[in-house]
Amino acid sequence: MIPISGTTRVFPVIGWPVEQVKAPAIYNAYFAKHGIDAVCVPMRVAPEHYASFVKSMMSAPNVGGICVSIPHKAASIRVGDVATDAALAAGAANAIFRDKDGRIVADLIDGEGFVRALDMTAAPDGFDYPNNSALIVGCGGVGSAIAASLADRGIAHLGLVDIDSAVLSGLASRLRKHYPETVVTVATAGHADEMGYDLLVNGTPLGMNPGDSMPFSLDNAKPSAIIADCGMKTENTELLRVAAFRGHRVQKGKEMLFEQAPLYMERFGWPGVTADEFRALGVL
Fold first, then answer.
1. Distance between CA atoms of 264 and 268, rounded to whole angstroms?
2. Can you give the pTM of this predicted structure?
3. Residue 224: left (phi > 0), alpha (psi -120 to 50), or beta?
4. What rounded mean pLDDT belongs to the chain?
5. Which residues contact 151 (CB under 8 A, 6 or more apart)?
6. How far is CA 87 from CA 19, 38, 67, 147, 261, in A?
7. What span, in angstroms and rounded, lies between the C-alpha atoms of 135 and 38?
């Protein structure tokens, strides 16, 4: 690893908590392998201090950008000078950086990372977005990002589930406005049926800790349905173990991380990096 100095570019990963984040491991391994004078640092920041902390960090010229973790993604669309269309559609952002004009941009890239991983999971035939449907349980930062990216790919039907009715109605309204061809339905937790969906996504924290209950049942799931878990702390959650045992194709949270890594790198000044370069590091 290159010694940290006054020339080192710093990339914070901000969350509350932040112990579960995997981004520093893969980015620091990449920087070390390629001799890049940069470091990715996890930072635990409470929600009430988040906006002021981001503004302070981005005022430092050697801070190259910020990776955003839970629960700050919704708040992130308001901390910059401008938010991208993807961030506005989902109501969340997870990448903060300066554009060529020096503006602080709030962008959303984890949803795109998810659908890129989904395309690989569904290979060789691919995921038939215009004729398929997805159920997303947990519509916070990551769930809303995935919903927006699936809609952007033209998915026929999105079922959204969350315990917070305001979160549900807000996300559904934005998706219907930005993607009118996608049918969006909503249900509060405990009132959703997984029957008939081609993709089932866990966007909740359930599965991060041993003993967690499953976010939804698989009893009525189509045998051909893909089961995806966005959790990073535990690679093989109970949901994924049960799904694999029942013969479903599964998608682990780290695949979304690998696929969004090149998107972060591009926004932070290193275009042309591939997801396979991060997989090859072998740190996850």
1. 6
2. 0.93
3. alpha
4. 94
5. 89, 158, 175, 178, 179, 182, 184
6. 25, 26, 14, 12, 17
7. 39
Q: Report the phi/psi class of residue 184: left, alpha or beta, with left for phi > 0 and alpha for psi in -120 to 50.
A: beta
Structure tokens at 161: 């589930």
Listed in sequence order, the residues at least 6 apart from 140 whose beta carbon sits closer than 8 Å to its beta carbon are 70, 71, 73, 74, 92, 162, 167, 203, 204
Q: Position of tokens 């790198």?
A: 265
> What are the structural domains of the chain?
9-108+256-279 (3.40.50.10860), 111-251 (3.40.50.720)
Ranges of the chain with pLDDT below 70: 1, 190-192
Tens digits of residue pLDDT in 62-82: 999 999 998 999 999 999 999
pLDDT at 18: 92
CB of 191 closer than 8 Å to CB of 153: no
Beta-sheet strand order (sheet of 38-44):
38-44, 9-15, 66-68, 95-98, 104-107, 82-83
